[in-house]
Amino acid sequence: MNHLRNERGIALVTALLLTLITLVIVMALMYYIEMGTKMSGAAKRYKDVRQAGYGGVSLTVNELMPRLENAVLGDSVSVINALKGDYASANLTIPDANCLKLKLSSSTALWGSCSSTLDPKTAPDMTFTLNSTLAGFSTPTQGYIVYTKIVDTSVVGNTDPSENNYLRKPENVNESSAVQGSGVTIPTIYRIEIQAEREQNPMERTKLSVVYAY
Predict the structure, then answer these.
(1) Distance between CA atoms of 194 and 60, rounded to whole angstroms?
(2) Which residues partner with 149 through β-bridges?
(3) Phi, psi of 148 (to 5 degrees)
(4) Structural contact between residues 147 and 120, judged by C-beta atoms closer than 8 angstroms
(5) pLDDT in tens, 33-72
């Protein structure tokens, strides 16, 4: 009687199964490495654009807004033109100076047709570009476009928007307008929406909300 059991080839099958399992493990490792690299790159790009957003906030509230406040008292055209000249390297634009002046001096209910939507790219009050000044690169580094928009003036205070810091409007106090520190000072409070995005890739962007008191 011949035996039907034949184990020839079992070593080959076992080797193929082990090879398959090894390939699956290697592919899984390569997938996780690739995903980790992509996530690290995305996190770095987001960190860069977030820092650009913070830079946009700093420039807006520390440099642009105080000078624009002065425009409320006097010739807004000359103030805005001087501001554009000082920040020409940043391509500063102010699409609608009349609406911006109204937003700086009036409560939201009095803005009329001026946009108060929360999207800073829809009718922005200011736009400018933040570029790297580092030298030595074979190709110029990409900058970041910053859109700035006042979306709410919740409180119209009595602070004097002139260059005399911390003075109140003289019609709101009994003391001389040259007296500082007495009486009640109420700042004007704005909500500002800011969006920063990479010039060549608008998908890389960050949005920040700022409450600013002047």
Answers:
(1) 9
(2) 193
(3) -125, 135
(4) yes
(5) 888 877 777 777 778 888 889 999 999 988 888 888 776 6
Q: Give Cα 213 distance to the centre of its chain.
A: 19
Q: Are 118 and 208 in contact (CB under 8 A)?
A: no
Token representation of residue 195: 């969006």
3-state secondary structure of 212: strand
In the sheet with 126-130, reading across from the earlier edge strand, the strands are 126-130, 144-155, 189-198, 205-213
- Select from 52, 14, 26 the least CA-distant residue to 205: 52
> Residue 207's CB: how many other CB atoms inside 10 A?
16
Cα(83)–Cα(209) distance, integer angstroms: 23
**pLDDT-based confidence at residue 174 (cuts at 50, 70, 90):** very low
Q: What region does 113 belong to: left with phi over 0, alpha with psi -120 to 50, or beta?
A: alpha
Strand spans (E) along the chain: 126-130, 144-155, 189-198, 205-213
What is the C-alpha to C-alpha distance for residues 34 and 16, in angstroms, rounded to an integer?
A: 27
Q: From its phi and psi, is residue 123 left (phi > 0), alpha (psi between -120 and 50) or beta?
A: left
Q: How many CA atoms lie within 13 A of 180 on its CB side?
A: 5
- The encoded tokens of residue 16 equal 């193929």
For residue 24 the two structure tokens come to: 């699956």
